Amino acid sequence: MKIVIVSDTHGSRKNIENVCECNPDADMLIHLGDVEDDEDYIEAIFECPTHIVGGNNDFFSRLPREEEFDLEGHHIFITHGHAYYVSMGEAHLQEEARRRGADIVMYGHTHVPALTIDADLVTLNPGSLTYPRQQGRQATYMVMKLEKGKQPEVELKTV
């Protein structure tokens, strides 16, 4: 299963359209918040199931703030991350993910890509497609390949 993971598009469509064009074989799209009213558009251009959570800039959105679901034998917890103080580190979020029995947790908010692989938990942030903050300021997203009984494979991609 190929999962495209994005975050922090902030209403800009150019890079999300590029991601869609580069991944026509995506089995799922996960958006980790700060969509800014583009959720219907994003769901329409991707021809696969989507999971989209609301971020701190999705003020009047009806998007859920977090979701949990199972895929290919993995329990996944997704959130924008601001409620777990991710700008100060991943510890609170990882603690909550473990409490929920997740073995994969995804977040956004920081606009900086991150990947932490522990024995019991994969923690990832795809960065931002619109306002990247890491050195080089390159727009990024991630592609995760999931297969039952195997460790997830995660690749950071640039737009």
UniProtKB/TrEMBL annotation:
Similarity-based family: Belongs to the metallophosphoesterase superfamily. YfcE family.
Needed cofactors: a divalent metal cation
The UniProt record lists the keyword Endoplasmic reticulum: no
Signal peptide: none
Keywords: Metal-binding
Keyword Heme recorded: no
Enzyme Commission no: 3.1.4.-
Domain called Calcineurin-like phosphoesterase: residue spans: 1-148
Matching Pfam families: Metallophos_2
Protein name: Phosphoesterase
InterPro entries listed in its UniProt record: Calcineurin-like_PHP_lpxH (IPR024654), Metallo-depent_PP-like (IPR029052), MPP_YfcE (IPR041802), Phosphodiesterase_MJ0936/Vps29 (IPR000979)
GO MF: hydrolase activity; metal ion binding
Enzyme class: hydrolase
NCBIfam families linked to this entry: yfcE (TIGR00040)
